[in-house]
Every structure is written in structure tokens, then in C-alpha cells.
Automatic annotation (TrEMBL):
GO terms for molecular function: flavin adenine dinucleotide binding; monooxygenase activity. Transmembrane segments: none annotated. It holds the Pfam family Pyr_redox_3. This is Predicted flavoprotein involved in K+ transport (COG2072). Signal peptide: none annotated. It comes from the Bacteria. The keyword Nucleotide-binding does not apply. Keywords: Oxidoreductase. InterPro entries: Auxin_biosynth/cation_transpt, CHP04046_FMN-dependent, FAD/NAD-bd_sf.
Amino acid sequence: MLHSAHDVARFKSDHAVVVIGAGQAGLSVAYQLQQRGIRPVVLEKHRIGYAWDQQRWDSFCLVTPNWQCRLPDFPYDGNQPEGFMPKAEIVAYLQRFARHVGGDVREGVAVQRLTPKGSGYRLITSEGEMEAEHVVVATGGYHAPRRHPLAERLPASVLQLDARAYRNPAALPEGPVLVVGSGQSGSQIAEDLHLSGRTVHLSVGSAPRSPRVYRGRDVVDWLDRMGYYAMPISDHADPRSVRAKTNHYLTGRDGGREIDLRHRATEGMRLHGRLATIATDHIGFADDLAGNLDQADAVYCRIRSSIDSWIQQQGIEAPLEPPYSPCWQPSAMADPGIDLSRDPLAAVIWCTGYRSDFSWIDAPVFDGAGLPAHERGVTQSAGLYFLGLPWLHTWGSGRFCGVSDDADYLARLISLRLQRRDASQERLECTAILGS
């Protein structure tokens, strides 16, 4: 049963396990713990599905096929396994999973401080204090939007939004829009605006892109068969930096398709390099658009090539496709930028990433960049764990397809530690009785 904060008059003072966050990660570990006879308290700052519902634009949908939604004992149950769930269906799926999990889920409860206390942890929440022996932090890693340092120089007449605040083209003032950042959010929001007929400027960075369908199958299907999504980070070619890499851009919109920014340029989308300068009447861009597009295409072609090699190794019959050929090239002339006096912008949408904020955790478990140091979610502070972070263990760790395995791993470890504690306490009690 789900409880609101107002339904909870008083917390218990002590719990074996508290889970912070009731998204797909927090609910998954709660379910896996309950399968082992452990009933955790799950604290959710907002409500089930809040981030999917309130921090995504209206046309948002998954970029991975629905069949990859594999929460524990609760796989996708709709009639479009090869489709891509839109926002409302994602929220509904997560809410159904919450009912499937059941348990002690408390919505509207924010954890304001977490500190070690004795052999466990003290939590200060919006509803009072509580203590826990084990704490799983499942709040994700995308907490605060990043904006370009020059954002404050934009004229006050230009509306500024972060990606998670954008909803739809009609909600913006009339006029051209600049989207800064070409990762998944930036490229999809730029398309959303472009397809509505808006004039769109897109500042293109170094984000890679991916095919959608190749040689008869969705690329996610091929990569899943190839074991890419189950590969642990320790086997990755670049484990030190992979967690910080930008996701490949493509879309699940309109039944799923790839995003070719060059093609959008032929239709009138105005592509620029990285944002370089902002003055009262002018926005300038670096001369790196061609290189950034080439780099994205190189990744696109490498993915296709790796699939080709695997198909050949496995002896699979699959239709051939012609090599990729770019349909548009940037002008060799320097980008004049945007003259705000002649072509004023209605809005700028910042799709420049997010930073983590774990400042509310007073435990020595962070690296110099403020990120948790862990081994598959297990920290050096006994009883403190993280779940649902990008590449926590595999590519799927922060997604619907892989969080179940990580949740199962932590639940097994916590269960073992609780069993050892109980056995140790029993031995101490027996010793005390025999000694008396």
C-alpha cells in the first residue's frame, strides 16, 4: 500500500533498511528485499513517477524498445513490445509496478540529511527523524541542470529554460529558438520544435549518434544479443570515463527512428558549432560544427560495423544495407552566428547536462568530484549503498533493462549482512546466558 506523508503520523525510530527514492531503482530493490523477507521503508520526495511526468516534455518517449522494460517480476505487459512508450505510459507502468511491489512506500517525504550514527545511519526528513541500519540511495544522478557559464549574459527579453522545464512548442513565445546541446534531450527537443514549424538554431556538441534500425532489426536488439548491455564496466575499454560520456542520440518518436542532423539542416534547421560568445546583440559559435558532425557519424558507422562483424561471426542471414553517406555539409565560410538585433530569439533551451548533488549525505564515500565511490553500488561506509546510477555496473544499471540485476545484487548482500548480524547477536546472547 502507498502512503502519503500526511498518512504517517510518526516514523518508527529504527529500521533495518531504508530506501531513499521510489523510482524504478528504489522500487526494484524494495521488491528484491521483500522477496527475502526484509520489509524496507521507502521514502519518496515527490510521488511515484514524478520525474517522468514533470521533468520530460510532452512528446517524450523511451529511446529503447518496450521489451527492454524488465523490472523484477514485472516485464512490459503491453501489446507493442517493439514500440517506445510515451511519457504517460511510462508513468502508468511505474505506478503499476509500485502497486506490484506494495510495501511501506511513503510519498511526499524528503530526506534532508543522512549521517552515520553508531553502526547505522540517522536520517533527518521532512516528517521527522529516523534511524536505519542499512540505507540505499536510489535518487539517480541527474539532480541539478547545468547551464553554460555565459547564460547570464543573454538579454532579459530572451526566455531561458532547462531541458526538464520544456513542455511543447506552443508553450514558448513566438519566434526563433536556440537549443544548446545535441545529446538525446537537445536533439529531440530541437526536432520537436522543428517539426512544429518553428525556426530552430541548434548548437551541436560532441554527442555521438546511433542507428535506429540496421540490417532488419532495431540496433538495441542487435546490441542486446551481442551482450553489450550486460557487459560490466570493468570490461569496458574506457572504464574511468565511461560514466561521464554523453548518450547516443536517436529517438523512439513516430515508431522509432534515427536522428540525422544533417538531414534536418536540409529542411531548414540551422546548425552551429559549440556556443562560444554571448554579447548584447550577438551570439557566436566555435568553428567546429563539421568536426562534431563527422565525429557523431563516425560513432554511428562504428556501431554498424560492429553489428556487421557479429552477424558474420554468428553466420546470421540479414539484409545488407548501403554504406552511410552524409547528405549535407556545413559551409566552409565562418559561421556568422546569430544577430540578435536583426533576428531576436524568443527562447534558449539549455540541454547541457546535469550534475549530481549528494551534499545532504555526510559520509566519507565521495570522490573529489562529489560522486559516490563504490563497487557495484557498495561503498566503504558499511551499510550505505547507491543504486540506479549510470554505469553503476553495466550500461543498463540506470535504465529499466538492468536495474533489476543490480537491485538483486544489493538485496542479496544486505540480506546476508543482516543474517550475520542476527547470528552474531545470538552468539553473544548465548555466551551471556552461559556465563551467568
